């Protein structure tokens, strides 16, 4: 595989409206027009690029990267909640490589140590 995970270079960039969460009646929302925002927590291979894009992985085999919003969004209420999100991303595959992907995750915390690679 060697540099096969160059294919797993995932650039996530925000569309015109960025990522926003809108909750019923309350308006908790956040918008990122680029990823230089200090409210993001990055780990693994994730890094901010000088052009405002977020690179989650590099060409290292079996690499992972995560970007989380630093502040919890409260879901434990008695009323119904909904959210919407909008983003654009690109996966640049290398010939013969497999397993590239990206996931949008809603998680109770940023600890993904229990998750497999």
From TrEMBL:
Keyword Nucleotide-binding on entry: no
Organism name: Noccaea caerulescens
Membrane spanning residue stretches: 6-24
Family: Belongs to the leguminous lectin family.
Gene Ontology MF annotations: carbohydrate binding; kinase activity
Domain of life from the UniProt record: Eukaryota
Name this protein carries in UniProt: Putative L-type lectin-domain containing receptor kinase II.2
Domain Legume lectin: 28-115
A Pfam family per the record: Lectin_legB
Record's keyword terms, sorted: Kinase, Lectin, Membrane, Receptor, Transferase, Transmembrane, Transmembrane helix
């Amino acid at each position: 595989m060697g540099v096969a995970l160059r294919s797993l270079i995932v650039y996530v960039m925000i569309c015109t409206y960025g990522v926003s969460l809108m909750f019923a009646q309350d308006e908790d929302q956040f918008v990122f027009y680029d990823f230089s925002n200090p409210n993001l927590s990055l780990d693994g291979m994730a890094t901010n690029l000088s052009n405002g894009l977020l690179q989650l992985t590099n060409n290292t085999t079996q690499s992972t990267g995560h970007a989380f919003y630093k502040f919890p969004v409260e879901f434990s209420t008695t009323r119904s909640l909904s959210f919407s999100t909008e983003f654009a991303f690109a996966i640049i595959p290398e010939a013969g490589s497999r397993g590239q992907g990206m996931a949008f995750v809603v998680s109770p915390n940023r600890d993904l140590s229990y998750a497999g690679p």
